[in-house]
Design a protein that fits this description.
Length: 273
């Protein structure tokens, strides 16, 4: 019996190695500071760039677009380490920051970046039919807004529903607190207006995966906002809204385990395609 169990364990281990080997043996390349805009002001030229990380020897790869956090006022593009060497094309995006510009301009920049990805990612072995939009904190808020208010992407002749999936990590579902700050409000003076993702709940959008940290550890009641958003999405008739609370994780530490949830949903969707 012991030998049988050992043989099964060895066989399983070898199968895992054989499955992972093709991805691990790939050569990956990263191209930095690609301009994605035609805007001509100096701040736009400085900020509106992206980095792209891709496997050189694979084709039609899933594409993950990552918007950085920083409260819409800080932060820089990055390629998360958890997404490297897994057969993905990963795009890290910069956008213009508050209060240097308005939230309208920030959201427009983000939509322009997604449009660039749709039009150019095949040049980097990505499949434009397998694009996932995600990000943490402010980046999660941006991904929510691009998903639910279709006007931002439609300005660039892209249908928001052509994105395979949206996965905001700890995004703000009400009007973002730094947008409210520009309106003269305090962080806990909550408003819901056209800059609140929850204002735009709709039935007919792609899979929508909401991930937050522990409700007692998260920033500004972030889990509770997402719970309300998930409830409203279900009430309006959206059948593929998912909500996760990562117990024991605060706003910062929730990021790393969230990638596993993202990949689980992505693998399910790819299997169904």
């Amino acid at each position: 019996m012991f030998l049988v169990l050992m043989n099964r364990k060895v066989t399983s281990f070898l199968l895992i190695i054989l499955i992972c080997l093709p991805l691990c043996s790939q050569t990956y390349k990263q191209v930095n500071d690609i301009s994605y805009t035609n805007k001509i002001d100096s701040y736009a030229k400085e900020r509106l760039k992206l980095d792209i990380y891709y496997p050189e020897d694979l084709n039609n790869c899933p594409v993950i677009v990552w918007f950085h956090g920083g409260g819409l006022e800080a932060g820089n593009k990055e390629i998360p380490n958890r997404l490297k060497e897994k057969g993905y094309v990963v795009v890290g995006v910069n956008y213009r920051l508050l209060p240097n510009v308005s939230i309208n301009e920030t959201l427009d920049d983000s939509a322009e970046a997604i449009a660039w990805v749709f039009r150019h990612v095949s040049e980097y072995n990505g499949d434009p039919n397998k694009i996932v939009v995600t990000g943490h904190s402010a980046g999660g808020y941006i991904s929510m807004m691009l998903c639910l208010n279709k006007k931002w992407l439609s300005n660039y002749q892209i249908d928001a529903d052509d994105v395979l999936m949206y996965v905001p990590f700890s995004g703000q579902a009400v009007t973002h607190y730094n947008v409210r700050k520009m309106q003269g409000l305090k962080p806990l003076q909550v408003t819901i207006d056209e800059y609140a993702p929850i204002y735009w709940v709709r039935k007919d959008c792609p899979p929508f995966v909401l991930i937050c940290g522990d409700r007692e550890l998260e920033l500004y009641g972030r889990y509770d906002e997402n719970q309300y958003l998930a409830r409203m999405m279900k009430l309006v008739g959206h059948q593929q809204t998912f909500l996760y609370e990562l117990d024991g994780h605060g706003h910062g530490t929730m990021v790393d385990p969230s990638f596993h949830i993202l990949e689980t949903h992505l693998n399910r969707l790819l299997k169904d395609k």
